[in-house]
Specification:
The chain is of the alpha/beta class. The protein folds into three domains: 130 residues, Rossmann fold (3-Layer(aba) Sandwich); 165 residues, P-loop containing nucleotide triphosphate hydrolases (Rossmann fold); 143 residues, Helicase, Ruva Protein, domain 3 (Orthogonal Bundle), CATH 1.10.8. 49% of the residues lie in helices and 14% in strands. It has 20 helices and 16 strands. The strands form five sheets. It has a five-stranded parallel β-sheet, with helices on both faces. It has a five-stranded parallel β-sheet with strand order 7-10-13-6-14. Strands 8-9 form a two-stranded antiparallel ribbon. The C terminus is likely disordered. The structure holds adenosine-5'-triphosphate (ATP) and magnesium ion (MG). The site of adenosine-5'-triphosphate (ATP) has 18 residues, from helix 7, helix 13 and helix 15.
């Protein structure tokens, strides 16, 4: 026989509890409690599947208060309310507070069984969904970095994702502008809706207006059908306008209107169509300067620049290179079945000396190439392009030999520490154990090597 589900019933009437237990004991394992204290005691020691909670407890206690406490501590835990006389209002209130359902105090056995199974199935589904979401985020790449400049980016993303404000992301090529835009979308309340990316530079000039705003059938030669534009497609979600600096001046006016009025005009359309989109724009050019020189409309610039996020070039946060390398190895090494690959400290040091004009994208390309070349498990100097691995950068840095050696040691230490921190989900205690050093030493090393420990625990 299947194992019985365990119910915890909280009610202030002893008689009711006894009756309930004798009635249900063949179908459920029944645990009973007469006070909230008793109930929490049981919840902390026993495995309970579902809790049944009386809406009216004695001593003026409301079941709603207990419900709140339970939900605070265990948001996913299913609670079903028991109502004696039809107190529909409190029952509805209880569902708002997170109760799974409510039933009369003398439920039919079958009804209760079904309800319990449904509650448990719903919880499973929710968990699966959350796991799936995490997985999707992990695979699709996330922003990596622990230096203050990247921490600031994380903070900005968090802040703007709670709102609908327009964001302008600037940064050199390959610094992660699109990645940041996608993160903002994913962290926002629009995450279940679409993210539409438009590259303003790659669109054919004659077609861009119709691409963005759509067109009405017959509005120009070739418009054989009415077609919605990207803004309409993004309705409810986020539109990412990449390389915004390249947008034709005539279209800048149109875009300004969309941002002001929140409605679009299809080419040849009769009336404006309201759209509900969050706009994120990006550019690697200096829009302020372009505005001053009259190459970009000032009013549009102000409309876009409501919340600016500036991404630092990689050469300004080189301390993140070991972490990025680790991340990239994990992402691409998996495809190649080379998950155990490591980077030789000297090679890593050359990477730390290099100035990375192509930023993280260049780093990605270099690692991908090195992964292919290094048949063994270690990426060494010879797998790096000459401008990085030729030692040029180390030589031209003008460092003395002891300094070079110290840098190499530090880089290797950073890489190993990062690896274990990541592996243990930033658990200091476990990492220290794996590294074979006391916790205190790990703290000291991290602070010396510029590895930031806080905050990561939760992510
Ligand atoms: N901080 C980061 N952590 C992890 N990966 C990153 C980071 N920054 C960039 N990347 C990766 O680098 C690559 C380039 O990033 P992205 O395409 O977002 O850059 P971009 O700023 O839009 O560049 P471009 O101006 O050339 O379009 C992507 O594969 C992205 O995942
Ligand atoms: Mg880009």
């Amino acid at each position: 026989m299947d194992q019985l589900r365990t119910l915890l019933v909280l009610d202030d009437s002893k008689i009711f509890l006894e009756d309930f237990e004798s009635l249900m004991k063949n179908f459920f394992t029944v645990l009973t409690a007469m006070t909230d204290k008793e109930a929490f005691e049981i919840l902390s020691h026993k495995k309970v599947d579902v809790m049944l909670l009386d809406l009216m407890l004695g001593d003026g206690q409301s079941g709603l208060n207990v419900l709140k406490q339970v939900k605070d501590e265990m948001p996913d835990f299913p609670v079903i309310m028991l109502t004696s006389h039809a107190s529909v209002e409190s029952a509805v209130e209880s569902m708002r507070l997170g109760a799974y359902h409510y039933i009369p105090k003398s439920p039919k056995i079958e009804e209760l069984k079904t309800l319990v199974e449904k509650a448990l199935a719903q919880r499973e589904l929710k968990r699966d969904y959350e796991l799936l979401r995490e997985e999707v985020q992990r695979v699709s790449g996330r922003i990596v970095g622990a230096t203050p400049s990247i921490e600031r980016v994380f903070e900005s993303i968090q802040r703007v994702s709670m709102t609908d404000v327009t964001v302008l992301i600037t940064g050199e090529s390959g610094t992660g502008k699109e990645l940041v835009a996608r993160e903002i979308h994913a962290a926002s309340k629009r995450s279940q809706r679409v993210f539409v990316a438009v590259n303003c530079a790659s669109l054919v000039k004659e077609l861009i207006e119709s691409e963005l705003f759509g067109h009405q059938k017959g509005s120009f030669t070739g418009a054989t059908q009415t077609k919605p534009g990207k803004f309409e497609l993004a309705d409810g979600g986020t539109i990412f306008l990449d390389e915004i600096a390249e947008l034709d001046i005539h279209l800048q006016v149109k875009l300004l209107r969309v941002l002001q009025e929140r409605e679009i005009d299809r080419v040849g359309g009769a009336s404006p169509i309201p759209v509900n989109v969050r706009v994120i724009a990006a550019t690697n050019r200096d829009l302020t300067a372009m505005t001053e020189q009259g190459e970009f409309r000032q009013d549009l610039f102000y409309r876009l620049n409501v919340y600016p996020i500036v991404l630092p070039p990689l050469r300004e946060h080189k301390e993140d290179i070991p972490l990025l390398v680790e991340h990239i190895l994990k992402r691409f090494g998996k495809d190649l079945n080379k998950s155990e690959i490591t980077v030789d400290p000297v090679a890593l040091d050359c990477m730390l000396q290099y100035h990375w004009p192509g930023n993280v994208r260049e780093l990605e390309n270099v690692i991908q190439r090195a992964l292919l070349l290094s048949a063994g498990g270690v990426i060494t100097l010879e797998h790096l392009p000459k401008e990085i691995g030729g030692g040029e950068s180390v030589v031209s840095s003008g460092l003395s030999l002891p300094e070079v050696e110290k840098n190499a040691r530090d880089s290797a230490a950073r890489l190993v520490i990062y690896r274990y921190l990541e592996q243990t989900n930033w658990n200091i205690k476990e990492s220290a154990k794996l590294l074979g050093i006391p916790e205190k030493t790990l703290y000291d090393k991290c602070s010396r090597l510029g590895i930031k420990l806080q905050k990561k625990n939760s992510s």
